[in-house]
Amino acid sequence: MNVSTSALGVRRRKVTTQNIDDEENSAVLKLGPEFQLNQITNDGEEQQLIALNLSEARLLIRAALKERKHNKNKNKTRKKGGNNNNSSSISNNGGNKNRLNGNHNTNVGDINGGDGDSNIDGNNISNNNDKDINGDRQNKGNNDDNDDDDDDDDDDDDDEDDEDMKEDEISNMELAGPNSNEIVHKTLNFLTNFARFKNRSSCETVEKLLNDFSEHCNEPLHPFELAQLGTLECEDPEEAKSLIPSLQNKVSDVQLQTLLTELRKYQTLS
């Protein structure tokens, strides 16, 4: 009888029996050390844990993308202004060269002397005056270009303020930029569809409302629980506690119903 030696000495993996005591209780929020309320930053400083709901995350990401877009436009404007200044420098150098040639001709006329030399001097002086006038006009034009660039910067700042007030008018594709990847586009679309509070004032009001609500609970709520309350749209306390089981022993149904009503009101206003 032939016996395969490849299976000799190999222990079969047995199905592990699950201990009932090890089962997680959904009513108790258990998180690892990386989710402790007090976090240590890379600089060694202590900082409170921050959890954002979808509305806050949307505003934060859009603000970062707007800042990046604004910096790119400002760099393009500065680069354009630098090219104009370089062109002006080249033109001024040409004018200086013409002035040197004119002075050389004037000196030759002084050495030769005579009435014809005086005419040469007069012509050279006239030519030099014309070149000086042209140079001044060109410098004035360059200064006007620089003033226009400053005005463009001010216009960009005004446009940025208008964008902050009307965030939804900017498409996600335009805000992300042509060189951004597909993940950024999908993230912005997801946040646009599921964020409950669209503007900054509503998010700030909801944040204050949730913090005040946490202080009056039987036990202070975890930042993740507050973020979930700001993200999920629940009709009644039963639905809220089914989606966030850790709220079972922390808050009463009456308190939770009042909070849900207030959240729906600010959602409508936003």
UniProtKB/TrEMBL annotation:
GO biological process, alphabetically ordered: DNA-templated transcription initiation
Family matches, as SUPFAM superfamilies: HRDC-like (SSF47819)
Annotated region (Disordered), positions in chain: 65-180
UniProt protein name: DNA-directed RNA polymerase II subunit RPB4
Molecular functions (GO terms): nucleotide binding
Biased composition (Low complexity): 82-110, 117-128
Keyword Cytoplasm: no
Species for this entry: Candida albicans P78048
Domain of life: Eukaryota
A GO CC term assigned to this protein in UniProt: DNA-directed RNA polymerase complex
Gene3D superfamilies: 1.20.1250.40
Composition bias type Basic and acidic residues, residue spans: 129-143
UniProt-listed Pfam families: RNA_pol_Rpb4
Keyword field: DNA-directed RNA polymerase, Nucleus, Transcription
UniProt family annotation: Belongs to the eukaryotic RPB4 RNA polymerase subunit family.
UniProt feature, compositional bias: Acidic residues: 144-171
